[in-house]
Write a structure and sequence with these properties.
With 228 residues, the chain is an all-alpha fold. It has eight helices and no strands.
């Protein structure tokens, strides 16, 4: 564990970019949306600006693999240790940001949408009255997208730009293939009934965590063959 903590510190050497910058971006987007809502939107409006954090997490951990992974291996850090430390950093970030988003949602509700009826955090498809469920709904997708960034970054280190393009095309082909199968079998109604029958938290946190496990496994297996 002590070695994992030391390796995690390598990834946090630029703590501003890793921990502060993502929330700073969200704060700036929030301020911009408050100004726009107060100036132009009578009755307020809903915005997806909070998802800037999710995109930032994906990019940040992609860069972790392309920049910090070679550096760490040059310091005699093993691939297993680096992956373990990455998992610690990703999990810690997601917990911190999930808690901050939950607090932001509570403040938003208490202030009537920041005084201008703006819906920034309390988006209807993520909204929960239970604070813990709200925390999970924010946190689980952060972990999922972070590991997606890790996998893309390690694919780039293993196979370069063409590998990333091949990964994107392959994932796209899988999605299109599944859609064609569902359409061919006329399963759209059944799929809709299945999804609508699921608890909201299962769609927001349960299934994303299953995807996270798959992405983490793929990342680790790819990392074992990656060249610094």
């Amino acid at each position: 564990m002590a070695q994992l903590v030391r390796v995690a510190r390598i990834q946090l050497v630029n703590v501003f970019s890793v921990l502060v910058l993502p929330m700073l971006i969200v704060a700036l987007v929030l301020v911009g949306n408050i100004v726009l809502s107060g100036a132009f939107a009578e009755g307020g409006f809903a915005t997806g600006g909070v998802f800037a954090l999710y995109a930032t997490m994906l990019v940040a951990h992609l860069q972790t693999m392309t920049q910090m992974f070679p550096f760490a291996l040059g310091l005699a850090v093993t691939r297993r240790e680096f992956f373990g430390a990455t998992t610690m950093v990703v999990s810690g970030q997601a917990v911190i940001y999930g808690a901050l988003l939950t607090v932001g949602k509570l403040v938003e509700e208490a202030t009537g949408g920041w005084g201008v009826e703006l819906t920034f955090f309390a988006l209807p498809f993520l909204d929960h009255d239970n604070v813990f469920l709200q925390f999970l709904a924010y946190t689980a997708p952060l972990v999922t997208l972070s590991f997606l960034g890790v996998w893309i970054g390690i694919v780039f280190k293993r196979w370069g730009q063409y590998g990333v393009w091949a990964l994107g095309v392959s994932l796209g082909a899988v999605v299109v293939g599944l859609a064609l199968i569902v359409n061919w079998q006329d399963w759209w109604d059944e799929l809709g009934r299945f999804l609508s029958s699921q608890p909201a938290i299962a769609l927001q946190a349960g299934y994303p965590m299953v995807i996270t496990l798959l992405l983490a496994g793929a990342s680790y297996l790819t990392m074992r063959r990656a060249v610094p």
